[in-house]
Design brief:
By secondary structure, this protein is mostly helical. It has one domain. Helices cover 84% and strands 0% of the residues. The chain has 19 helices and no strands. Helix 5 packs antiparallel against helix 7, helix 8 runs parallel beside helix 10 and helix 14 packs antiparallel against helix 16. The protein is globular and about 60 Å long. The two termini are 36 Å apart.
């Protein structure tokens, strides 16, 4: 599918955003109004997704088999890695599209490049996802063992992971297209697509899990089919409304002006997910020594903690197109204003919502498990997750700044930091404090990564200011040089 090629009329629209349009919010709308437009739909979609994860855990838990919950917990890192494949192309491509839209306000010719970026991002995600899915299916037994499944959970984990691998191209494409839609400021359309997917997922879970009793394989199948609905939704919308966007394969290019910025920014997403997989593998393998109750408790606690965490992610991810557009346009005052407002919003949201969940963590957790041993472990895991979410929120905001301005090196360092720090910290914690040390090791890692994020922000701030002072071409070259530094 492809949208119309840039024309003189389209370019006039590019240089003069219409008040109330999606790009007007990126370009000239008041900062607070722009943040509400971009971040509230993003947060709402993420919350719906987080609530689905909780409901999904309830569906699986209703089967009264702890091994099923353990299988979903063990398979979760794989879903994160799949999303990262879409993130390499989607986040990298989306940030570049937003910068090009901003640069097009002063240089309309920049808009013509967007169709190459969008086509490369989508088909790069699909092809890469297909290759990884096929390799994963060929090595399924080894992969299940690597995920930390013991003999009791191995069969169910194989079912869950096997079905998920079959849908990797679809999952990667869905995540990539979401980023492309958001890149143009169409946050509400992105939200609608994600909500439609979630509703479809719930309905499919009812059929596959509760009616047909297909267990974790049914849950994975429902997720795959729901994401196929998402792909169709976004593809149709972009073909009709995506400004300068094309999804047709003929616009795919491997030119460095496209692949360089996409991969340099997208690499941080892949590395972050890869290290999260390493983190989860180490965590699952250490926790598995304490039985399926520990794994089940971690799975439920993580899903509950995602609610306030995803609210913050709505801000940090939602503001990225605004930051990238402002940088591409050379509007330093708008970029700084958006960053300050986002910082305050993150502080308020994480303080209020994480605090409420932390205070009421025990009754909240009891709604999902009546097993006293699972409850005892789960409330501790939940407390640790919520404290880590505070640090992770501010780290995520600074990571968005680095991605928006093409600073891939600090973004990559932060993405690697958690995994690099977590492994020695969790091993020491396990040796000194057993399961409690394992649980709190992630919190300690997140705090240290936040310190590193602040230090790197202070180091690159001057370069960002110099980039803002340059013209659009100079900004693009400077960002590409920074990415390869």
């Amino acid at each position: 599918m492809t949208s119309a090629d840039p024309s003189p009329t389209t370019r006039t629209t590019t240089t003069e955003p219409v008040p109330g349009s999606d790009r007007w919010y990126l370009s000239t709308a008041p900062i607070v109004r722009a943040l509400v437009h971009l971040c509230v739909p993003m947060a709402a979609a993420l919350i719906v997704g987080a609530l689905y994860n909780v409901v999904n855990a309830g569906f699986i838990g209703s089967q009264h088999d702890t091994a099923l919950l353990a299988a979903v917990t063990l398979g979760t890192p794989l879903l994160g890695l799949v999303m990262a494949v879409g993130g390499v192309f989607g986040v990298g491509g989306g940030a570049l599209i937003s910068r090009l839209l901003g640069a097009a306000e002063t240089d309309p010719a920049k808009a013509a490049e967007i169709k190459h970026v969008s086509a490369f991002a989508l088909w790069g995600a699909v092809v890469t996802g297909a290759v990884l899915g096929a390799v994963g299916l060929l090595l399924l037994p080894q992969l299940v063992g690597l995920l930390g499944a013991d003999q009791a959970a191995a069969a169910e984990t194989s079912r869950y992971v096997g079905v998920t691998l079959a849908f990797v191209p679809v999952l990667a494409a869905a995540f990539c297209l979401e980023q492309i839609v958001r890149a143009g400021g169409a946050a509400r359309q992105a939200m609608i697509g994600l909500v439609v997917s979630t509703v479809a997922n719930v309905l499919l879970d009812v059929v596959f899990v509760l009616v047909l009793h297909w267990g974790v394989a049914g849950a994975a199948l429902g997720t795959g089919l729901a994401n196929a609905v998402t792909v169709a939704w976004f593809a149709v919308w972009l073909s009709r409304r995506g400004e300068h966007v094309s999804l047709h394969p003929r616009w795919v290019t491997l030119a460095r002006r496209v692949t360089g910025p996409v991969f340099s920014v997208g690499a941080s997403e892949l590395l972050q997910a890869s290290f999260l997989v390493v983190t989860s593998l180490v965590l699952n393998n250490l926790a598995s020594a304490y039985g399926d109750q520990a794994l089940a408790a971690m799975g439920v606690a993580v899903r509950i903690a995602q609610v306030p965490e995803f609210l913050v992610m709505g801000i940090t991810l939602g503001v990225l197109p605004l930051l990238a557009y402002s940088y591409g346009k050379g509007d330093g005052a708008r970029l700084r204003g958006a960053l300050r407002a986002s910082f305050v919003a993150v502080a308020v949201v994480i303080g209020v919502f994480a605090g409420v969940v932390l205070v009421f963590r025990e009754p909240v957790f009891e709604a999902f498990s009546a097993d006293p041993s699972v409850l005892a472990i789960g409330v501790t895991v939940l407390a640790a997750q919520l404290v880590a979410a505070v640090a992770n929120g501010f780290t995520g905001l600074l990571t968005s700044v680095f991605q928006a301005t093409g600073r891939s090196v600090p973004a990559i360092v932060l993405s690697m930091g958690q995994g690099v720090l977590f492994v020695p910290i969790v091993l020491v914690g396990s040796a000194l404090s057993g399961l409690s040390g394992i649980v709190w090791s992630l919190t300690v890692s997140e705090m240290l990564v936040l310190v590193a994020a602040v230090v790197m922000w202070l180091a690159v701030r001057g370069g960002i200011e110099r980039g803002l002072a340059a013209g659009s071409s100079e900004r693009a070259e400077e960002a590409l040089e920074a990415a390869g530094a």
